[in-house]
Design goal:
Enzyme class: oxidoreductase
Strand order of the largest sheet: 3-2-1-4-5-6
EC number: 1.1.1.22
InterPro entries: 6-PGluconate_DH-like_C_sf, NAD(P)-bd_dom_sf, UDP-Glc/GDP-Man, UDP-Glc/GDP-Man_DH_C, UDP-Glc/GDP-Man_DH_C_sf, UDP-Glc/GDP-Man_DH_dimer, UDP-Glc/GDP-Man_DH_N, UDPglc_DH_bac
Bound molecules: uridine-5'-diphosphate-xylopyranose
Number of strands: 14
Helix content: 40-55%
CATH architecture of the largest domain: 3-Layer(aba) Sandwich
Pathway: Nucleotide-sugar biosynthesis; UDP-alpha-D-glucuronate biosynthesis; UDP-alpha-D-glucuronate from UDP-alpha-D-glucose: step 1/1
Catalytic activity: UDP-alpha-D-glucose + 2 NAD(+) + H2O = UDP-alpha-D-glucuronate + 2 NADH + 3 H(+)
């Protein structure tokens, strides 16, 4: 099939390469000329496993362009994969969706199905169809379908080609048939619903996962207060199939491009309908506090933080990505600097992005060892493999005082005790080592 994909971010590019991989001819449209020239040279502008290889393997069926007049004409299916970032009031900003619609209306020259993959509030697809139908050339039949994405960064290609479900939100059998043809080669169960239900499935899923994380984080904080161990609690809870063992890792809170914005958008949407989603509101609040949980802990060891030298290991919102959107590190490092702490950071993928985003002055280190050198405290914010594999005995050798606050539970407290460090993680009993509280 001839397919156009509008937007070459995580969702757009992964969608495009997977569709090309399953036999379609795909034109990728992005107004960012820099991205387009990178893509034409075979370089993905995102850090995502498998994308570069699929671009190379399918280069004959992929075209990259910044010109809607080249991408849209002739397309039977047009995917909208542009961002819907958070507005200042928490609602989703749909400007890019409507700008894509304008381009589609101007250039579509045949009957087609416009498929919205971006996460949009319930009712957006319906509005979009009205807008497109009023602008499109006479005689062309166009339908809008909702097909939310459920991709996790780091495993996006696998999630798309053999994920757990494809949700097709359609209002006609024609649109359903077209989408089934698009996904003919995909090894994924399909659920068909109306458009609003499909839009809601996406929000309800992401909000539920965010709730699950905030729940285990609150339980972790309580575990610390009563002296229980959250890792074993999560293990025990997860053995119950009704609960499931995934998304029960406690830590310094969720970040990324989806959970923070989707929780706020659903909360906003509920308020608009005179409702309060109390559980979602609580998840948002818990997450905000959790992001700076380690700073509160630091005060146990250093009542005054001013003048301390601190190492921060991990900046991206999770391992395997350079993405810093809503990463706990942004807030964490800002609070440290506000408190007069000298900060050294290390991350294997996200330092360049951090440098661009973050205005505060920090020292960028090219190894974990360099970051730890002569510091008074170390904060672990992302569970990179390099951090997990770092020998615990090196902490006391490199640091001035080996106080390690681990926001991702990377190490075994027993091993930390043997290494002679102060080791305080999330939801587990702290190891106070030889260095008593000051
Ligand atoms: C998420 C959803 O998983 C995906 O289905 C949706 O389409 C987009 O949002 P992603 O943002 O890539 O994907 O990352 P994910 O692996 O879900 O992690 C999100 C955040 O939650 C990270 O900051 C991660 O560290 C945190 N997290 C995740 C936890 O703190 N504990 C967990 O148990 C799982």
């Amino acid at each position: 099939m001839k397919i156009a994909v509008v937007g070459t971010g995580y969702v757009g590019l992964v969608t495009a390469v997977c569709l090309a991989h399953t036999g379609h001819e795909v034109r990728c449209l992005d107004r960012d000329e820099t991205k387009i020239s990178l893509l034409r040279r075979g370089v993905p502008p995102i850090f995502e496993a498998g994308v570069r290889e699929l671009m190379e393997e399918n280069k004959n069926s992929l075209i990259y362009t910044a010109d809607p007049g080249e991408a849209i004409p002739g397309a039977e299916v047009i995917f909208i994969c542009v961002g819907t970032p958070e507005r200042a009031d928490g609602y989703a900003n749909l400007a890019a969706i409507y700008e894509s619609a304008e381009e589609i209306a101007e250039h579509a020259d045949r009957d087609c199905v416009v498929v919205v993959k971006s996460t949009v509030p319930m009712g957006t697809n319906e509005k979009l169809e009205k807008l497109l139908s009023s602008r499109i050339r006479r005689g062309i039949r166009l339908e809008v379908a909702s097909n939310p994405e459920f991709l996790s960064q780091g495993t996006a290609v696998r999630d798309m080609l053999s994920g757990q479900r494809l949700v097709l939100g359609v209002e006609s059998e024609t649109a359903e048939a077209v989408l089934r043809r698009v996904y003919r080669e995909f090894d994924v169960p399909i659920l068909v619903s109306d458009r609003k239900t499909a839009e809601m499935i996406k929000y309800a899923s992401n909000n539920f996962l965010a709730l699950k994380i905030s729940y285990i984080n609150e339980i972790a904080n309580l575990c610390e207060a009563v002296g229980a161990d959250v890792e074993t609690v999560a293990l025990g809870m997860g053995m119950d199939e009704r609960i499931g063992n995934r998304f029960l890792r406690s830590g310094v809170g969720y970040g990324g491009s989806c959970f923070p914005k989707d929780t706020k958008a659903l909360h906003w949407l509920a308020r608009y309908h005179d409702f309060e989603l109390k559980t979602v509101k609580a998840a948002i609040e818990v997450n905000e506090n959790q992001k700076i949980r380690l700073i509160k802990k630091a005060r146990r060891y250093y009542p005054c933080l001013e003048g301390l030298n601190a190492a921060v290991l991990g900046l991206s919102f999770k391992p395997g990505t350079d993405d810093l959107r809503d990463a706990p590190s942004l807030q964490h490092v800002a609070v440290l600097l506000d408190n007069g702490v000298h900060v050294r950071v290390w991350d294997p993928a996200a330092m360049e992005g951090f440098r661009r985003l973050f205005t505060g002055s920090v020292r960028y280190c090219s190894s974990i060892g360099e970051a730890l050198k002569d510091t008074d405290i170390c904060f672990i914010l992302t569970e990179w493999e390099e951090v997990r594999a770092f020998p615990l005995v090196m902490f006391p050798r490199l640091m001035k005082r080996p106080v390690v606050l681990d926001g991702r539970n990377c190490f075994d407290p027993g091993a930390a005790r043997e290494a002679g460090i102060v080791y305080d993680s999330i939801g587990r009993r702290p190891v106070l080592g030889d260095v008593a509280q000051q």
